[in-house]
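Honest question from a wet-lab person: if I give you the sequences of every part of a complex, can you actually get the arrangement of the whole thing, not just the pieces? Trying it with mine:
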Amino acid sequence: MIWLPILGLLIGAAVGLVSNWTIPVEYSSYLSIAILAALDTVFGGIRANLEKTFDDVVFLTGFFTNIFVAALLAFIGVQLGVDLYLAAVVAFGVRLFQNIAVIRRLVVTQIRAKRRRRFNTTS
Amino acid sequence: MHTRAKLALSLTAVSTVLGLMIGVQYRQTSATAALGLGYLRGTVDTHTLTELKNLKASNQAAEQELTQLNDELNQFERVSSGSDKAMTAFQQRLTDERILAGITAVEGPGISVTLSDGASNGSDVEQILTHDWNVRSVINELFTAGAEAVSINGYRVVATSGVFCSGPVVRVNNHRLGAPFTIEAIGDPETLKSALDIQGGILDVLRMQGLNVTVPQIKQKIVMSAYTGSLPGSPTYSLNEAIPSLSNNGT
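Yes, you can. This is the full assembly:
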C-alpha cells in the first residue's frame, strides 16, 4: 500500500519528462510555486496521517486549492509589481520544514513506543 | 483499514500530479539552460571552444595539405632531374606562373599612366574625384590587353587584390592610397598604350568625367616589387622556401 504513492510519483515524473508539454517561460515561476505548494500539502497529509487526523476530502481539496491559490498569488503579485511570489515561497517553505520536523518526531516517538511495548512483553 | 486505503489512494493521486509537475519543470529548466538563457557565460565558452577546435582541425588539415604538396613538388623535381629539357620547361613555366601570381619581383617594358582629381569648376565634386571604380576599370583594361604585371603607386595587383574606396582613400591590398594614382603595367607597351588610348576608351571616359589623366607613357624598363601580403590557401613563406630548394636541386 505504501509504495503506491511512490509509484504514482515516478509515473508522473516519467510522463512529465517524456511528454512534449511545455509551458511558456513567463509562466515557469507559477509552476515552480505550484510544485512547492504541492510538496507542502503532501507532507501535511503524511503528518495528518501520523497524527490520526487525516481526512481525504480535506487533503485533496487542500492540495488543489493550495496549488491554485499559490499560482494566483504569484500572478497577482506580478500584476501589482509586488513580489507576493516570495511570500508564498517563504510560507510554504517554512511549513514544509515544520511538517518534516513534526513527522520526524512522530516517527521517533512511535518507534520508541513500539520498542517499549516489545520490551514490556518480552520481560 | 478504510482510512488507510483512502490515504493511499489520495496520496497516490496527489503525488502523481506532483511528479508530473516536477518532470515538466525539470525538462523546462534544462531546456532553458541549453538555450543559453540561464547560463549564458557557459554557452559562450562552449561556442568559443568549439570554434577553436574547428580552427585547429582546419589548421592541421592545411598543414597536411602543405606537406603533401611539398612532397609532390620534390617528386616532380626528382623526375625532372633526369632530363634537362623537361626541367627547363618546368622551371620556365614555374617562373611564368609566379610572375602572373605576383609573388616575384619583375622588370620589363611597359606603360605608366597617372590619374588625379580634376579641378572643381562648379560641377558636382563627386564627379571629379578619383574613385575606386575609376582605378579598377583602368586595371581591368590593362589586364584585358595582356598586361603581365600591374601596380598602383608601387603596390602590386594580384588575383586577390581589392581596390575599394574607404572614406577619403582607396585601399589596395589593405594599403591606403590617395590620389594621384600612378598605374604601371608590364607587357607589350604598344598594345597596352593603344588599349588605353582607344577613342571612347576608358581614359576618354575618365577625362570626360573631369579627372586629370596623363597620356600613357611608354617605359623601356619598369621595376615592380613582389606582392607582400599573404595569399589565401598558400602561405607565401612556404613558396619562398620552395624556391631555393628548387634552384639547389637544379644546379
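Two things worth pointing out. The longest helix of chain B spans residues 40-80. Chain B touches chain A through 30 residues (CB under 8 Å).
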